[in-house]
Every structure is written in C-alpha cells, then in structure tokens.
Known about the structure:
Layout: H1 5-20, H2 28-31, H3 37-53, E1 58-64, H4 68-74, E2 80-85, E3 95-97, E4 105-114, H5 124-130, E5 131-141, H6 153-158, E6 163-168, E7 184-189, E8 192-198, H7 207-219, E9 229-234, E10 239-240, E11 246-251, E12 255-262
Parallel strand pairs: 1-9, 3-12
Antiparallel strand pairs: 1-2, 4-5, 4-9, 4-10, 5-6, 7-8, 7-11, 11-12
Helix pairs in contact: 1-3
Bound molecules: hexanedioic acid and magnesium ion (MG).
Magnesium ion is lined by residues 62, 64, 107, 109, 139, 231, 233-234.
Amino acid sequence: xxxxxxxxxxxxxxxxxxxxxxxxxxxxxxxxxxxxxxxxxxxxxxxxxxxxxxxxxxxxxxxxxxxxxxxxxxxxxxxxxxxxxxxxxxxxxxxxxxxxxxxxxxxxxxxxxxxxxxxxxxxxxxxxxxxxxxxxxxxxxxxxxxxxxxxxxxxxxxxxxxxxxxxxxxxxxxxxxxxxxxxxxxxxxxxxxxxxxxxxxxxxxxxxxxxxxxxxxxxxxxxxxxxxxxxxxxxxxxxxxxxxxxxxxxxxxxxxxxxxxxx
Length: 263
Ligand code: 0L1
Ligand code: MG
C-alpha cells in the first residue's frame, strides 16, 4: 500500500519529536516496509517545514554517503542529500554540546558556497563557475534511530540524512585556485590523528558532489539556490564524539578549523 501525505506528516512529526527529545526510535521501515525513497524525501521536506515554522532558516544542503569509506561504514550504497538550517551551524572554534543529541559522530568534509543558482544536469565546469568559494568543514551526524548501523537508505533520507550540526572553516577560497581533488585532509582528536584522506575520497572530486546534488534535486523538481552552503560529504568514516574532545581538521590550502565537545 502506498503512503499518503498524512503518513509523511505523521512520520516527520515522529522523527522531529525524537530529535527534540534526544530519544531513539525504531527505523521507520520496521513498521513501514513500503517506505520508498520518494516517500523518504517527502518526509524529510515535511520535517524541514516543521523546523522553518519554528523560525529556522534553510541555509543549504548536505550530500551524504559520497565516499566509499562512509558507504562501507554504514552498509549503504548510494549518495543522498539533507537540508541544513541556520540553527545547525556551530561557529568555527565553538563548542558543540552533547546534551540533546543521541549518538553524535564527526566527519571531515569540504563545503562550497554558491554564488549562482544551479538546476538539473550540470557539468563540473558549470558547478565550479557557480561556486564562489570552498571551505574546510566538519559535519556532526546524529541518527535518530536505534540500531545505528542497520537502517536502510529511505530511513536515513527521512531522518534528514542524519544531519545534526556543521562547522565551517573561516578560510574561503575560489575553488579554481585549489587542486580540489588532491587536498590532504587530516582530522585530529585531542592531538592524535583519527582520520585522514585525500579530498578525492569525496565523490572522486568534491565539486562532483555539487553536480550529483543538482541531479538528485532535479528528480524532485527542485534546484540549488544562489547563496547556498553545500557540504560535499565526508572523506572518511565518521568518528564518535566524547565529552572533552577537541577536534581539529586541517585541509591543504584551506587552513585549520576546530570544535570543542562539551557534556
Ligand atoms: O553525511 C552522511 O554521510 C550521512 C550518512 C548517514 C548515515 C549516518 O548516520 O552515518
Ligand atoms: Mg556528512
């Protein structure tokens, strides 16, 4: 039996309440085996409507599962997107509070800021032309599901692709000034390296995440507005956070950014 708009709203509310109450729920597909990817994106959009109705502002999009390491870690097989709001941003050098989250993890990323709107099938060159700058970034993920690793692609998408918070580096550079697919990325926790990779681990080249995102958006009749932040996806598997952690990411040409983790 296919899902109705009412089902989408109810499931969006369930996930929204789980997030606000920092309470795990069963993956939606346990009770709704029929949940398709289009249903999941409709639930995600409904969840974002609940957040904007409470005053949050959409500032961009995130791509997820863009690296082989991430797909392997989560046993899922294709890229997905989620929506970013202003309340999800932690300032560079700021503090991320574990309280109010469920089982947060952090991952090293590259982000872009778009200067022009993008729609549909675009080339790598068009994506580069439309992006005013690239930045180092970290995403803090937090799934609202129990059995963290054993959910399906529609479950992840409905849960806004596990988004929680993000941090952007202060150094912004035009992407054409960088050798985008060959940047060394190193993430340290409390002074010890926990993850490292070349930026090519992100979609082969991080700008290709923007190309893919536009294709995924076009499948739903949507586009990428000018002035958006795009998180291109993680270069490595994600790292579980503990109270007191000091996390630092260094990316060739894009400097260092950090975040502290508090109880
Ligand atoms: O950003 C992402 O790669 C989303 C991954 C979703 C799975 C997870 O919760 O780690
Ligand atoms: Mg990510």
